[in-house]
Write a structure and sequence with these properties.
It is built from nine helices and ten strands. It is α/β, with parallel strands linked by helices. The protein folds into three domains: about 55 residues, lambda repressor-like DNA-binding domains (434 Repressor (Amino-terminal Domain)), CATH 1.10.260; about 120 residues, Rossmann fold, CATH 3.40.50; about 80 residues. The strands form two sheets. The protein has a six-stranded parallel sheet with strand order 2-1-3-4-5-10, with helices on one face. Helix 1 crosses helix 2 and helix 1 crosses helix 3. It is elongated. It starts with 7 loop residues before the first helix and ends with a strand. InterPro entries: HTH_LacI (IPR000843), Lambda_DNA-bd_dom_sf (IPR010982). This is Regulatory protein, lacI family.
Length: about 270
C-alpha cells in the first residue's frame, strides 16, 4: 500500500475482522471480549501496514507480560548446542535484571507463544524464522542472523569491527576467522565477503583444519578448544553494548514504536 494512506478499513480487511474490532483493539477497550489471538492479529497487521503505530503501542502497553521467548535452531553439534545455551543464559541474566523472564523455544516446538511480548530468534535461517513468525503475532527479533526484511529488527556483530581488531592484533599479517557453523546462508555469504579466509566449525575435530597461525575468534565456546600453538585475537559476539542494543530493539518492537532502521550492527 505504498503511496496510499492506510485506513482502519484496510486493517480490518487484512486482519479478517470488523472495523469495530480494530477500533476496540487500538483504543485498548477491556470491557469487550476480544480474544488474545484476535488482538495480536490486529496489532500485527497494524504493525505491518504502519497504521497509527503510536495508538497500537498504547493498546499493547496495557497487555505487556514481561515474557521473552528465545528461539534456537536444530543442531547435532555439541559446540553449537553449548553456544546456544551460553547465549541464552547471558541474555536471560541481562533481561532478568530488567524484570523480564526468558523461556526457551526449542526447534521441535515452533508454535504460538501468546505469553511472550516478543521473540528473540538466535542464529536461525530465513525459512525457520518465517515458520516461527507464521505461528505468532508477537514481534520477532533476529539475533546473529540475517533476515534482511525491514519489518523485523536484526541485531548482528559488526564484522568490520572484528576485521579491524584482527588486523591490528596481527600487524597486517594474514589470519583466519574461525567461527561456529551457521545455517543462515545470508550470514555465511556476508562473512565470506568480509574475510579472506573463514573456517566453519561443527565439531572440535574441525579445528584440525585451521590453516593459519593467526586466528580470529568471536564465539566464546571455541576458546577452550584452540591449541596453544595458535595466536588468537578474541572479539566476543555477545557484549554489554550488544545486549543493550537488543533490549532497546525489543522494547521498540514490543511497543510497536515506528523505527526507520531495523538493521543494527555493533
Amino acid at each position: 500500500m505504498a503511496g496510499k494512506k492506510v485506513t482502519i478499513k484496510d486493517v480490518a480487511r487484512e486482519a479478517g475482522v470488523s472495523v469495530a474490532t480494530v477500533s476496540y483493539v487500538v483504543n485498548g477497550r477491556t470491557d469487550l471480549k476480544i480474544s488474545d489471538e484476535t488482538r495480536k492479529r490486529v496489532l500485527q497487521v497494524i504493525n505491518l501496514l504502519n497504521y497509527s503505530p503510536n495508538q497500537a503501542a498504547k493498546a499493547l502497553a496495557s497487555k505487556r507480560k514481561n515474557q521473552v521467548g528465545f528461539a534456537i535452531s536444530e543442531t547435532k553439534s555439541v559446540l553449537k548446542t553449548a553456544d546456544q545455551m551460553h547465549v541464552m543464559k547471558t541474555v536471560a541474566q541481562f533481561m532478568g535484571d530488567k524484570n523480564y523472564d526468558v523461556f526457551l523455544i526449542p526447534p521441535s516446538r515452533f508454535e504460538n507463544y501468546g505469553q511472550a511480548d516478543a521473540l528473540i530468534c538466535y542464529d536461525l535461517d530465513k525459512k525457520t524464522f518465517a515458520s516461527l513468525g507464521d505461528c505468532n503475532f508477537a514481534p520477532l527479533l533476529a539475533l546473529d542472523c540475517y533476515i534482511n526484511d525491514s519489518l523485523f529488527f536484526q541485531i548482528n556483530t559488526n564484522l568490520e569491527r572484528l576485521k579491524a581488531a584482527a588486523e591490528k592484533k596481527f600487524n597486517g599479517k594474514s589470519y583466519q576467522y574461525v567461527m561456529l557453523d551457521t545455517a543462515n546462508t545470508e550470514k555465511k555469504e556476508f562473512t565470506n565477503n568480509t574475510f579472506d579466509s573463514v573456517l566453519y566449525v561443527n565439531q572440535p575435530s574441525d579445528l584440525e583444519k585451521i590453516s593459519s597461525e593467526n586466528i580470529l575468534i568471536s564465539n566464546k565456546i571455541l576458546l577452550d578448544f584452540i591449541p596453544d600453538k595458535y595466536k588468537v585475537c578474541y572479539e566476543p559476539d555477545i557484549t554489554a553494548d550488544k545486549l543493550e542494543l537488543l533490549y532497546k530493539a525489543y522494547e521498540q518492537a514490543a511497543e510497536r514504536i515506528h523505527i526507520e532502521n531495523h538493521n543494527l550492527c555493533i
